[in-house]
Design brief:
Shape: globular
Oligomer: single chain
Number of strands: 10
Strand order of the largest sheet: 1-10-9-4-5-6-2-3
Number of helices: 5
Structural class: alpha+beta
Strand content: 15-25%
Helix content: 25-40%
Order of helices and strands: HEEEEHEHEHEEEEH
């Protein structure tokens, strides 16, 4: 055994690493690993959907939800983040989760410019499926106050433009806030977000 180990120790070590990595990947893919902690109850809301109906968080109880605050004429972070959410949508569609087990909310805090027609055009640009990706609007004060409850600060300058925290909140089936994906932390990528949604969808 000593001679065998001396000749083949490196191959054995590599094989062990590959097996361990494969086992870890399988465990995570099956929803293993530590669960995300509960941060707090997510604030409910009633806002105008692009179909004219009033939509609230509680209307989708029993589903995993992503909540993103934005404005459609934002010159920097909002469009790239919305693009990432479009990729999240694609991943959820592949897993048959979008609309049935998971919903994305994009909520505008700029009602003057983000009319229903504007949000329809904006959502169409990212091929949003309205059955599982809902673009919402409300009066500015209501939405800004709501955004704060989701950890998003919003500041309006004298030209009517906004600076804001760029993050996506993850809400579980029971309405608990479980995680913030913050762009400045480098974790606001569609793969990480989609995997977190899938993981929560498997929770009992």
């Amino acid at each position: 055994m000593g001679v065998f180990w001396q000749k083949h120790w490196f191959k054995v070590l590599i094989a062990a690493v590959i097996v361990a990595a494969a086992a870890g990947w399988y465990y995570k893919s099956q929803g293993g690993g530590e669960k995300l902690p509960v941060i707090k109850k997510a604030a409910d809301f009633k806002l105008e959907h692009t179909d004219g109906k009033q939509i609230g968080l509680s209307d989708d109880n029993g589903k995993v939800r992503l909540v993103y605050f934005f404005w459609s004429t934002c010159p920097d972070v909002c469009q790239p983040t919305t693009y990432e959410l479009s990729k999240v949508q694609q991943e959820l569609q592949k897993s048959s989760l979008l609309g049935t087990d998971a919903v994305i909310y994009s909520i505008s805090f700029d009602p003057d410019r983000d009319t229903v027609d504007q949000l329809k055009k904006y959502s169409a640009r990212f091929e949003a499926d309205p059955s599982g990706w809902k673009f919402l609007r409300g009066d500015s004060k209501t939405v800004v106050d709501l955004a704060k409850q989701y950890g998003v600060s919003v500041l309006k300058d004298n030209n009517g433009n906004f600076a804001h925290t760029n993050s996506v909140a993850l809400v579980d089936r029971a309405g608990n806030l479980r995680k913030y994906f913050v762009a400045t932390d480098g974790n606001l990528s569609y793969r990480l977000v989609a995997e977190a949604v899938k993981s929560l969808a498997k929770e009992q």
